[in-house]
User: Fold Lipopolysaccharide biosynthesis protein from Phocaeicola vulgatus.
Amino acid sequence: MMKEFSTDNKKIARNTMILYIRMLLLMVVSLYTSRIVLDALGIIDYGLYNVVGGIVIALGFLSGTLNTASSRFITVALSTRKLEVMQKTFSNILFVNVLLSFVILIGGETIGLWFLCNKIQIPLDRFNAAFWVYQMSILTVMVNIISSAYNACIIAHEKMEAFAYISLIDALGKLMIAYSLIHVMNSDRLVMYGGLILFMQLVNRFVYSIYCSRNFPETKVGFLWDKAYLTKMFKFITWASYGSFVSIGFTQGLNILLNIFFGPAVNTARAISVQVQNAIVLFTTNFQAAINPQLIKNVAIGDNLSAQKLLLASSKFSFFLLCLLGIPLIIIAPTVLNLWLKEVPEYTVVFVRLMLVISIWSSIANPLRIVNQAEGNIKKFQIYEGTVLLFIVPVSFCVLKLEKLPELVFVVHLFVELLASYIRIKIVLPKIGMRVCDYCKCVYLPLTIVFVLSVLFGSFLSLFLGDSFFSIVLLISLLSLFLIFLVYEIGLNQNERKKIVEFIKTKIDR
Assistant:
């Protein structure tokens, strides 16, 4: 048992390293691509692309649900080590994905199209371009949904090298698209950008399917219908889709609120802050992607002790990793944005700072969701968490009616997220036999102390250091060292500190 657990830990460490190399490359390429695209499209067209694409994403809220369901069911099927179970699982998931992608097509060409034509602020001379971008965005989401089954299969098998290579090809392809926009003179750049993004999604779809068919025998199968299994899946998807609907709803709802109250220029500021958020969140996404398959398997087979250890590790280290990158960026956001962008839209700095704070505190939510999904009975969790998060948009609307400050919607989001975090631990922890007070003592207490002291120290440094390159490097270095010290002394327990010291000694002895 101990040998198997040690092997699993080595696999997690190796996969984490692979995903972090992938993440660093993707982050650099993604941020540089955003800079080029913003420069090529301009502030108005860039904002239009994000708000128009946001409508499709809102309609495609099932995409996130299907990714969750695919990953959960495939990983659980793998734990049985039975090919027939794995084939049945993959086939049913693929069937459901194809079916629901056409449901999104119907919704997009009815409700979504009406909303685009009647509710979104679009300059008259750009409406035709926005219409075609909308159509291509629908097709992009459909292809992405169908691909999710193959993506989940690669993650469940923990083949992170393949996942990293394919993601890198995708990122480099988008960089080439961005460069091509600069040289377009006689065509509409916004429409061309939407079409090329669709093309890249189709390329990804075929690469994923070819790799899976060559490496995983369960994917070499047609549509095998199993009524009982489909019923089980649809029950899971029904409740999971409520959570995804809420997540997409408040995310795109805030985007639409900002468009209605302030216009597309503020949407551009939010889009840039989301780009920064996505790049930073890749740190925890990659770490959690390496742990999630093991966490799901431990919960599925009833190994509560191992599940508790992985839950605590995933929660704490996800938070600390985001702090290590996010807090310095919060402090030096104006300097970074001025270096990154040729023109920094109004409100971008405050949006980036607030989004990073939200991201840091939201990082501990996903491990709890994974435990809940692995256990299978997700109804109560989805209803309670989703209902609380659903209040973000109406409360933000009321706040904007009282005070027209766009940053207030992010403040509302943060407070509601903190409330939702309490609900998550109350529902999830009993499923693996863990007490709420033990979790709070191990996670929330040290995390809060580390976060508050780090922000105060970083703010103190910024008062005395200037904006020169040397000052920025010195600030990041001092703040990072202080953060690492806090994590080691406050964030880690005695056993975790001991393991880290032993690991370092082992590497030095080699």
